[in-house]
UniProtKB/TrEMBL annotation:
This is Methionine aminopeptidase. PROSITE patterns: MAP_1 (PS00680). Residues 27-254 form the Peptidase M24 domain. Monomer. One of its GO terms (biological process) is proteolysis. The keyword Protein biosynthesis does not apply. Keywords: Aminopeptidase, Hydrolase, Metal-binding, Protease.
Length: 277
């Protein structure tokens, strides 16, 4: 079921998927760009000896200085602007006092609210000397997001997106996390539909112009199973293998999609950061 976002309540409404108009696209364009600017600003800040807490503070101050709102702050009790997920952390890592070390890989995920619209975006950052297998994992994850995005057009289905991601990831002998998914967003942070990163062609709801959602595959070098640590947030790979993730917020257009969270500086590819090569 699809509903006109202009007449729908600003909350999740059963199974309904909102279809947005041109003003909403403009709002998401601004919010997505803001999220990308936060992650661009952090390029060069993520390095050996710096703590994740410090990175989160830099992100928070940047967001507030621009008059934007950090969406995660206070969300279900979460107290930070970013999630910073290191090495075997799959997602929802809480920025803490541990300093980055050479060889670390970290996902930094930020959601910014601009004029009521949510821009949700994450990238991988490599610290110092990153191993070949970690770089390969980041490359596979980034490429899987590109393939998911390439599957987006009116008439395709959510299953087509999941299939594009899963088939590529598994062809590279990696695994797709099942326990977390992308999501509709707009004036609501986490809205319908759920965008799972695995699936079969033709299955699931059909994509229509005006749908907004994230695609945010989490890819593991080992098996796909995850555990949640006692803090109630941090998701880790059960086998402690490395995990990577990239996330874009997108809108379905008449002939494909618009990526709202593209980097104004072209920095949203893997391990561009602190990577001398
Ligand atoms: N940004 C995350 C996402 O991609 C959500 C983080 S919720 C938080 O959906 F509370 F952990 F910050
Ligand atoms: Co998201
Ligand atoms: Co996110």
């Amino acid at each position: 079921m699809y509903i006109d976002a202009d007449t729908a309540p600003d909350s999740r409404n059963d199974q309904a998927i909102k279809l947005h108009g041109p003003e909403a696209f403009a709002g998401m364009r601004a919010a997505g760009k803001a999220a990308a600017q936060v992650l661009d600003m952090l390029v060069g800040e993520v390095k050996e000896g710096v703590t994740a807490e410090r990175i989160d503070t830099l992100a928070r101050d940047f967001v507030l200085d621009h008059g934007w709102i950090p969406a995660c702050m206070g969300y279900r009790g979460y107290q930070h602007t970013t999630c910073i997920s290191l090495n075997h952390v799959v997602c929802h890592g809480i920025p803490g006092p541990r300093a980055f070390r050479s060889g670390d890989i970290a996902n930094i995920d930020v959601t910014v609210i601009v004029d009521g619209w949510h821009g949700d975006h994450s990238r991988m950052y490599g610290v110092g000397d990153v191993s070949r297998k970690a770089r390969r994992l980041m490359d596979v994850t980034w490429e899987s997001l590109q393939r998911g995005i390439a599957a987006v057009k009116p008439g395709a289905t959510l299953g087509d997106i999941g299939h594009a991601i899963q088939s590529f990831v598994e062809s590279q002998r990696c695994s797709v996390v099942r326990d977390f998914c992308g999501h509709g967003l707009g004036r609501v942070f986490h809205d319908n539909p759920n965008v799972v990163h695995f699936g079969k062609p033709g299955q699931g709801p059909e994509l229509r112009p005006g749908m907004f959602f994230t695609i945010e595959p989490m890819v593991n070098l080992g098996k796909h199973a995850v555990s949640i640590l006692p803090d109630g947030w941090t998701a880790v790979t059960r086998d402690r293998s490395l995990s990577a993730q990239f996330e874009h917020s997108i809108g379905v257009t008449e002939d494909g999609c618009e990526i709202f969270t593209l980097s104004p500086l072209g920095l949203d590819t893997p391990h561009t950061l602190s990577d001398p090569n």
